[in-house]
Automatic annotation (TrEMBL):
A GO term, aspect molecular function: phosphatidate phosphatase activity
Species, as recorded: Microbacterium hatanonis
Record-linked InterPro entries: APP1_cat (IPR019236), Mg2+_PAP (IPR052935)
Protein name per the record: DUF2183 domain-containing protein
Phosphatidate phosphatase APP1 catalytic domain boundaries: 146-297
Length: 348
């Protein structure tokens, strides 16, 4: 007699191997007396719910300077921490406790009910009854109609990804303090954020969650506006060797459109990592949710290092303002010309 039970999905052998490897690392770390800690990443929400982001890790100690900054943090340290799979996590919001579970990579990504005032708010995150740590969420007021979504690699930070050898060098060897911002982008994003008080800022990247603390410090150090960060996991999935960065971006853009149907987003990216193509498709499918698109044009050298350009020549079907320039200052001028940014009175 045939069984009615659903067939269990076949899990890629590499994913099983990765899980066993991390389990072995976790047992070794716990055997040395190390304990898991929760790290909260900036999230976002409405006046009725919050999307809580973070990760549960067993982290090796890192030296700090007298000012509290991390001293000579090489990229490999971001990948040395041990992710704790399926850890039990307690999230406390305004005194109310919520028990959630991290995924198999230790990532916390969950939506919880909450009634918080608009703006940045603090919540608490703890793992295994340990000491709670603070995390922040940006609450979007119901009347907000504008938001910013920005790519990271080669849009706010010069990374020369995804060429494999350079990617490995930048990710694992380069001191985080040596990473350079893209000229003018911090000023552009900060000015747009000030012109639209209460607007959410989302940094949407194909980068790994391992680099989230480094990215947060980079954004703060170079005066980018504070915002939620949406990264991904570089590891294998149950059915493929590596996660799709394009799917990650498309999924989160669609999610933002569903969560904030009245917000029109300015989408900021570059022409080296499919942003042009992804934003074109999103603008065609969700024209009411797009205020405009700003694409940074990579220099010829950057384009070679990034593996070429992915430019969509025809944006007519998108029916939204579309601007391009090589840096933030040029993009800001063009955004002002199409009415998305205010004119700079100091130049008159």
């Amino acid at each position: 007699m045939p069984s009615d039970a659903p067939e269990r999905p076949k899990i890629l052998w590499l994913a099983r191997l990765e899980r066993r490897f991390h389990s072995w690392r976790e047992r070794r770390a716990r055997g040395r007396g190390l304990v898991p800690t929760a790290t909260g990443f900036p999230g976002y929400g409405s006046e009725e719910w919050v999307r809580v982001l973070g990760r549960v890790l067993i982290v090796p100690a890192v030296k700090r300077t007298s000012s509290g900054e991390y001293s000579s943090v090489r990229g490999w340290r971001s990948f040395a921490a041990v992710p704790v799979a399926f850890a039990q996590v307690t999230v406390t919001i305004e005194g109310e406790r919520h028990d959630v579970r991290a995924d198999r990579g230790g990532v916390i990504d969950t939506v919880l009910p909450a009634r918080l005032a608009p703006g940045w708010q603090t919540i608490m995150v703890a793992v295994e009854d340990g000491e709670p740590v603070e995390s922040r969420v940006f609450i979007v007021a119901s009347g907000v109609r504008f938001g910013l979504v920005s790519d990271v690699d080669d849009t706010v930070m010069v990374t020369a990804l995804p060429r494999p050898l350079l990617a490995a060098w930048n990710s694992f060897v380069v001191d985080e303090h040596a990473r350079q911002p893209v000229p003018g982008m911090a000023v552009m994003l900060e000015r747009l954020s000030r012109e639209h008080p209460g607007s959410p800022v989302i940094y949407l990247s194909t980068g790994a969650w391992n680099v989230a603390p480094t990215l947060i410090r980079f954004l703060h150090r170079h005066l980018y506006p504070a915002g939620a960060i949406l990264l991904t996991d570089w590891g294998p999935t149950h059915d493929r060797w590596f996660r799709s960065g394009q799917d990650h971006k498309k999924t989160n853009l669609r999610r933002l459109a569903e969560e904030f149907p009245d917000i029109r987003w300015l989408l900021v990216g570059d022409d080296g990592q499919h942003d042009d193509e992804i934003y074109t498709g999103f603008a065609i499918d969700h024209p009411a949710n797009v205020a405009g698109v700003a694409i940074r044009k990579l220099s010829p050298a950057e384009a070679v290092l990034a593996g070429g350009r992915t430019v969509v020549d025809d944006h007519s079907a998108a029916e939204v303002p579309w601007v391009t320039a090589s840096d933030g200052a040029g993009l800001l001028d063009r955004l002002a010309a199409v009415g998305i940014a205010a004119e700079d009175d100091t130049e008159k």
